[in-house]
Amino acid sequence: MSGDSRTGVWLIGARGSVATTTAVGAAAVGAGLVDPTACVTESADFSGTTLAPLNELVFGGHDVVGTPLPKRAEELARSGVIPPRLLDAVHDRLMDADTEIRAGYDADDEIDCQAATAERLVDDIVRFRERHRTARTVVINVASSEPPLDKHRQYADLEELEHALARPGRPLPPSSLYAYAALRAGCGYVDFTPSPGARVPALDVLARAHRVPYAGSDAKTGETLVKTALAPMFAARALHIRSWSGTNLLGGGDGATLADSGARRSKSLSKDRPLAGILGRPVEGKTHIDNVPSMGEWKTAWDHIQFEGFLGVPMTLQFTWQGCDSALAAPLVLDLARLVARAQEAGRTGPLPELGFFFKDPVGLNEHRLLPQYEVLLSWVHGLNEGVAGEGV
Fold first, then answer.
1. What per-residue string of b and e applies to 116-144 under the rule 16 or more CB within 10 Å gives b?
2. Any idea what the CATH number is for the domain that residue 230 is in?
3. Among residues 306, 323, 340, which one ends one of the domains?
4. How far, in Å, CA of 117 to CA of 137, rounded?
5. At 393, is the pLDDT very low, low, confident or very high (cuts 50, 70, 90)?
6. Do 25 and 135 have their domain in common?
7. Are residue 136 and residue 66 in the same domain, yes or no?
8. pLDDT for the residue numbered 100
9. Which candidate, 248, 222, 107, places its Cα nearest to that of 171?
10. What residues contact residue 257 under an 8 Å CB cut-off, 6+ apart?
11. CB atoms < 10 A from the CB of 79, how many?
């Protein structure tokens, strides 16, 4: 791989399950060891687009834990997430990525103001970019979900925000501090989780000032993906949905994080938003999330839908979704890294609503139906090849 042709992928939560599976997948697919199943940007619809090759992605990131990536990959292999036969084949690539992971932001350990921490985070990203001479670097937050942002922390003015960062205290949650550092470093940014991240209004000002794009929020990998495909069917057939309730059972780090009521509220709000957006009205029923540690890296979602047909006849539909969240999320991380890097190359700045296909709560986009989102994505990415950068949808 030659310098200046590579794309950097800087992951927040770089030693977590999703990040590790992403690094393993990029190495394995890039080397031709496995097929690119579930990588949307590797499908035939994306033929002819000039996206960064998977074998030219370089990984680094921030994390607050010290487990080396090869060790984390071994743990995931024992859980059935990563095929054991890949461990030796990708070991060197994982070690390369692990040497590029730097200490993240731990609010309990930091004694400086957040401005000082942000400078350290920016310096980590810039030095990574310089070492690898990447053409572009995309920062993607795959760390734990955070509670919704307090209203009094919704900074709209960039100068006001930077004054707050320079004072003692914690004006920004970790995800937004990482977003601030990424944008300051001139990198595209992706909120893969429902955390506040780049949704602080002042960060949109910062992104435009540094001429970089950002996307989010909260990638849809399972239950909500099904919702955004099924709900339009009911609407198109004029079947009246009376209620839609869901129960999510999951373990691992996500389950432990979502056992916290604040983090669980962020996720629930994000998961419930598409249905009302598609139907144009609120629907009875809620999404429940339960931590079941014994499930480990796996999750199960069960949904119950009550609807009315002709003459008011009551009917129901139920579905069960069982899967491995890391294996569902990792290919989307790769897709988003490639697409955001291409958007920055094309000169896009600010939010990328065209990437709403990937998210439960897409920034800058009110369209929640899966198929129209996909059509927007395809039109946009092929338009980039034709020199049409676009400014939203």
1. ebbeebbebbbebbeebebbbbbbbbbbb
2. 3.30.360.10
3. 323
4. 20
5. low
6. yes
7. yes
8. 98
9. 107
10. 144, 145, 263
11. 16
The rounded distance, in Å, linking the Cα atoms of 117 and 123 is 10
Residues 183 and 314 in one domain: no
In this structure, the answer to whether residues 206 and 248 fall within a common structural domain is no
Helix-then-strand count for the chain, H and E? 12, 11
Pairing of strands 188-191, 57-63: unpaired
CB-based contacts of 333, cutoff 8 Å, min separation 6: 9, 11, 18, 19, 22, 140, 142, 192
What count of other Cβ atoms lies within 10 Å of the Cβ of residue 203?
24
Q: What is the DSSP letter of 132?
A: H
Strand 7-12, strand 136-141: pairing: parallel
Q: Do 149 and 296 have their domain in common?
A: no
Rounded to 10 degrees, the C-alpha dihedral 272/274/276/280 comes to 180
Q: How many residues does the chain have?
A: 393
Separation of first and last alpha carbons in the chain: 35
Pairwise pLDDT comparison (206 vs 261), residue with the higher score: 206
- Give the predicted TM-score (pTM) of the model: 0.95
- Amino acid at site 358: F
Domain end marker among 277, 303, 323: 323
CA atoms of 143 and 28, how far apart (whole Å): 23
CB under 8 Å to 202, separation ≥6 — which residues? 155, 156, 157, 158, 160, 161
pLDDT digits (tens, 9 = 90+) for 226-237: 999 999 999 999
pLDDT per position as a tens digit, 16-33: 999 999 999 999 999 999
Structural domain total, the chain: 2
Domain that holds residue 203: 7-218+327-385
